[in-house]
């Protein structure tokens, strides 16, 4: 699992499988491991590229502020380094925001776009939550932090599974590459500054917008805005799961992704 120097940082990435390139960008508080449950289904059909965003996992965590445009440039630099001209691009939550910036800045690099539980701009409630998460990480330990965050990520059905939430918290505490408090703060502020509402019509590649009906962090209205503003985008709402449906309902998510990708014409372009 290599690293490469890009834009002044060491960027960690992982490539598995063969086929058309499929690049996955994780969201807030998550690194490349967040995609683990759907990886077996993806690598059987695609060359899957994952990375740790700056400030997460095994990538560098500089002290200075981050922007989502900057993180999109990190991804573009990675694609140049591994000599991949064009990818199917998938982003979850903040990763979907990074994906939007990437396709807007480099449409020639993106064959198709899948936005999972993402948004173009936060509303008052969302921004308040994200601002609090950015501040809170400096004042509590990781166990309490996870206890505060997870109710916004998973449904009551998931919480009712004995030991499930406790297991996730224990995994986070024991994870060898925990996020630094300053990185979570910078990520939160980058999300607050993000707004693509007036640029979405510039995205012309085939696009799937996928969200769970019970997502309370990035509710359906955010995905509806994306789908309505991106020309010819497809909106799909899953009945199962919440914001963390990659963990709560991985089979449904990967099935929707693969069905969308299967329908694409090989010659589809994003410019």
TrEMBL record:
It comes from Nostoc flagelliforme CCNUN1. Keywords: Hydrolase. InterPro entries: AB_hydrolase, AB_hydrolase_1, AB_hydrolase_fold, Epox_hydrolase-like, Pept_S33_TAP-like_C. Residues 204-264 form the Peptidase S33 tripeptidyl aminopeptidase-like C-terminal domain. GO terms for molecular function: triacylglycerol lipase activity. It comes from the Bacteria. Residues 21-129 form the AB hydrolase-1 domain. This is Lysophospholipase, alpha-beta hydrolase superfamily. GO terms for biological process: glycerolipid catabolic process.
């Amino acid at each position: 699992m290599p690293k490469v120097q890009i834009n002044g940082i060491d960027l960690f990435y992982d490539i598995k499988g063969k086929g058309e390139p499929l690049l996955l960008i994780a969201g807030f508080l998550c690194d490349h491991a967040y995609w683990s449950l759907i990886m077996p289904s993806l690598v059987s059909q695609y060359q899957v590229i994952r990375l740790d965003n700056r400030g997460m996992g095994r990538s560098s965590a500089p002290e200075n502020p981050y922007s989502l445009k900057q993180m999109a440039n990190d991804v573009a630099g990675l694609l140049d380094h591994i000599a991949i001209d064009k990818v199917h691009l998938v982003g979850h939550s903040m990763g979907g925001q990074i994906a939007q910036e990437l396709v807007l800045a480099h449409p020639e690099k993106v064959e198709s776009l899948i936005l999972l539980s993402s948004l173009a701009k936060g509303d008052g409630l969302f921004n308040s939550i994200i601002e609090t998460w950015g501040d809170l990480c400096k004042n509590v330990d990781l166990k309490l932090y996870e206890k505060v965050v997870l109710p916004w990520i998973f449904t009551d059905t998931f919480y009712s599974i004995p030991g499930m939430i406790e297991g996730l918290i224990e995994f986070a505490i024991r994870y060898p590459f925990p996020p630094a408090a300053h990185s979570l703060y910078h990520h939160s502020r980058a999300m607050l500054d993000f707004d693509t509402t007036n640029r979405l019509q510039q995205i012309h590649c085939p696009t799937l917008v996928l969200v769970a009906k019970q997502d309370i962090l990035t509710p359906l209205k955010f995905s509806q805005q994306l789908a309505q503003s991106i020309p010819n985008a497809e909106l799909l709402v899953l009945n199962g799961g919440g914001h963390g449906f990659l963990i709560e309902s991985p089979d449904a998510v990967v099935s929707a992704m693969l069905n969308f990708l299967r329908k694409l014409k090989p010659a589809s372009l994003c410019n």
